[in-house]
Amino acid sequence: MDTLVFMEDVTCRYGGNASARPRIALPNINVTRGNHTLLLGPSGSGKTTLINCIAGLQVVQSGRIEVAGADMVSMSIRNRDQLRGTMIGMVMQRLHLISAMTIRANLQLAQRLASRRVDNPLIERLTEALGIVDKLDRFPHQLSQGESQRAAIARALVNKPALLLADEPTSALDDKNCSAAISLLLDQAESHGATLIVATHDDRIKSRFANIVLLGAA
Amino acid sequence: MNQLATAFSIAAAYLREKKLATALNVLLLGLGVGTIIALVLLLAQAEDRMERDSAGIDLVIGAKGSPMQIILSSIFQVDIPTGNILAADAAPIISSPMVKRAVPLALGDSYKGFRIVGTSKDYLHLYQGKVAGGRLWEKPLEAVLGADAARGTGLGVGAEFVGTHGLAEGGGSEHGDHPYIVVGVLASSGTVMDRLILTDLTSVWELHEHTSPPAMASAPSTPAKQNTAKDVNHQHGDKPGNKHDHAHDAKPTPAGKVDDHEHGEDKKREVTAYLIQYATPLAAVSFPRAVNASSAMQAASPALESARLFQLVGVGVTALKGFAVVMMVCAGLGIFIGLMNALDERRADLALLRVLGASPTVVVLSTLLQGAILGILGVILGLIIGHVTADWIGQTYAASQRLAIGGRIWITQEWSIIGGALLLALVASLMPAWRAYRDATPELLAAR
Ligand SMILES: Nc1ncnc2c1ncn2[C@@H]1O[C@H](COP(=O)(O)OP(=O)(O)OP(=O)(O)O)[C@@H](O)[C@H]1O
Ligand SMILES: [Mg+2]
Predict the structure, then answer these.
(1) Which residue is closest in CA terms to ligand 1's atom 18?
(2) Are B173 and B93 spatial neighbours (Cβ–Cβ below 8 Å)?
(3) Does B357 contact A at CB distance below 8 Å?
(4) What is B319-375 written as a DSSP string?
(5) For the segment A85-138, what is each residue's pLDDT rounded down to a tens digit?
């Protein structure tokens, strides 16, 4: 099986006060195509930083990051945008939906930005599975935290990405919805042969993954 | 194309989210554009009409008084004349070799608000008048109608009508015993001639010579002031308050030139004005002076008076235009401030767009398009406001003065106004677009 995501000796450093800059060393990972991996670690252990590194959203100090054989560190911004749009679906920890648009328009926008056709049946299927199909024509501020989180999961799935990155996708969900959301992520990844990387400190979903990478003190 | 459509959907959603600000900016821009367009439309038409109406007329000779009034009353047929002059007085002057053509005008009567003008056939040459039906007049009391006058009165060839004393609609007594007969209708010329009823000079003379003083006395007893306005050029000497009376009953004018009042009818015949065409441009130097030397007559230059009129009107127009420009600039500022504020609120949105794979182009376009959409909506509203206002003013004014001015035309100047407004909206969104480009770093999301 070939490697889709490869990280080696990556260190990051956040900006700000020079003396107070922590240097964050990230674990080496090697995720093969089609694999489902859980990044497990306590708060502050660098899960979000790692996910952002893979997505090309993080300024890296040293080390190597390769996604689908492409060097993310030296890649131009434009190419990174394009790669992210076409092959990566992201559920961000600070989930963000565009408040001026309905949930449906948010999902459609993700498809448009990935240069795909708007696929309403798919949008409806995904939101149905997540139990928010009746919320499609609402605006983000009319949704609960958990519903917003499920909408963000749906958005990550609308383009059937080859690589699914989910950062704390279940933090706001109750047990039932947590289970349903993880099932959907796994099912979608399975059915499209997509690679899934989930970062969490949520022990509830530990049992659903075979490959677990531990971060920090955990 | 795809990127443009995507950017458009984002821009539209953002404008929809801020409905009130959007509406206000569009309204402000629309009012500014509309005001300028209305002004430009009306001015251009007025200028065009004035130019066409006074084309080929180098000088007007009228009774002593305001030269502006002479021009307005005899060329444009809007104001009342300053009075009448004796044809005999003018004869030596207009027979000068410097004069190529002198077209007499005798005003005073009207029919349904259309002025009856006693003149010579030369008047038609001035405006390239063509007969659309019937023929020109051959003898007194035969009338030829301008195109608008024919439409407005509903008269056709063969119809008879009775002129009314005075220039305003519905005023004055009728010359009941002397009906005119319509012998011809003129083709539309786009000039003042269209709204006149033309007849031979002698018709007017005959009518008024036969109008005996008793008939005049039986005219509705209107207050003196009103009388002046309506009948100022009816020189029968029996009307109080008539300041410009050089009439045949010889109320003495200040200079007392009317010394031949007891001679024959011919000597008493009056003309309101002469439209003069020079034989040589050099005439402009000495001819007006020769006219003004005569105590009873006044020379008025259409070019000079038109320029003066536009200068007078110009002050108001400039002020209004300035006001409209201020409105437009405010709209531009409104767009700028609105977009800038929205950027701060939408920083996270911008970063998200990049996370979702949007190129910086889409991010910049979505901001520029917001300005462009506001600009286009404002321009559309402005065009509607401008044309409707011009039409409304035209209708109101045309109803009283029978001037064909309106808003149902398009002039090339409008393109530059549209271009200016769109440019303004675009310029107002340039800086926000640049900020959007700068702020839309996806690292921002990670770094929060
Ligand atoms: N913008 C930032 N500036 C400075 N330090 C930061 C910034 N973002 C994160 N860090 C630091 O980097 C380290 C890793 O943070 P990261 O967000 O990756 O942790 P995490 O595992 O996702 O935590 P959590 O479970 O709370 O989301 C932490 O020590 C954090 O304090
Ligand atoms: Mg995190």
Answers:
(1) A46
(2) no
(3) yes
(4) HHHHHHHHHHHHHHHHHHHHHHHHHHHTHHHHHHHHHTT--HHHHHHHHHHHHHHHH
(5) 889 999 988 868 999 999 999 999 999 988 889 999 999 999 999 999 999 999
Question: Candidates A21, A23, A47, A203: which one to mutate for ligand 1, based on the most atoms within 8 Å of Cβ?
Answer: A47
Quote the CA–CA distance of A65 and B51 in Å, as a whole number: 78
Q: Which residues contact B60 (CB under 8 A, 6 or more apart)?
A: B70, B71, B74, B75, B273, B274, B275, B276, B299, B300, B301, B302
Token pair of A167 as six digits: 């950062």
pLDDT at B7: 93
Three-class SS of residue A2? coil
Q: How far is the CA of A78 from the centre of ligand 1 (A)?
A: 26
Concatenated DSSP letters for B126-194?
HTT--EEEE----STTEEEE-HHHHHHH---TT-EE--EESSSTT-S-B-TT--EEEEEEEPP-SSGGG
Lowest mean pLDDT, pick from B167-171, B222-226, B353-357, B395-399: B222-226
With H, G, I as helix, E, B as strand and everything else as coil, classify residue A80.
helix
Question: With the CA atoms of B160, B164, B166 and B171 taken in that order, what torsion angle do they form, in degrees rounded to the nearest 10?
Answer: -130
Confidence band, pLDDT 50/70/90 cuts, at residue B228: very low
Can you say how many angstroms the Cα of residue A23 is from the centroid of all Cα atoms in its chain? 23
Please tell me if residue B4 touches chain A, with a CB cutoff of 8 Å: no
**B16 vs A: CB within 8 A:** yes
* Contact list, B16 vs chain A (CB under 8 Å): 100
Asked if residue B351 lies in contact with residue B444, where contact means CB atoms within 8 angstroms, the answer is yes
The partner residues of A91 in beta bridges, in order of sequence, read A166
To the nearest whole Å, the CA of B438 is away from the closest chain A CA by: 13
pLDDT at B223: 39
- Could you tell me how far CA A216 lies from the centroid of its own chain? 20
> In this predicted structure, what is the pLDDT of residue B268?
75
Contact A82, B357 (CB under 8 A): yes
Nearest chain A residue (CA) to B9: A109
Calculate helix-pair angle for B413-439, B302-345, nearest 10 degrees: 20
Q: What is the mean pLDDT of residues B329-343?
A: 90
Query: Tens digit of pLDDT for each residue in B266-305?
Result: 667 889 999 999 999 888 888 998 888 877 899 999 999 9
Contact flag B358-A81 (C-beta cutoff 8 Å)? yes
pLDDT at A203: 87
Answer whether B39's CB lies under 8 Å from B321's CB: yes
| Contact: B17, A99; criterion CB under 8 Å | yes
pLDDT digits 0-9 by tens, B55-82: 889 999 999 999 999 999 999 888 889 8
| d(C-alpha A152, C-alpha A162), whole Å | 17
Q: Distance (Å, rounded) from C-alpha B119 to C-alpha B204?
A: 9
Q: DSSP label at B318? A: H
Residue A14 predicted with pLDDT over 50: yes
- The rounded mean pLDDT for chain A is 89
> How many of the other CB atoms lie within 10 Å of CB of A53?
26
Nearest of B383, B381, B379, B359 to residue B371 by alpha carbon? B379
CA A100 to each of CA A127, B151, B211, B434: distance values in angstroms, whole numbers, following the listed order: 19, 58, 81, 21
What ipTM was predicted for this assembly? 0.85
* Residue A205 DSSP one-character state: G
DSSP 3-state of A168 = coil
d(CA B276, CA B298): 13
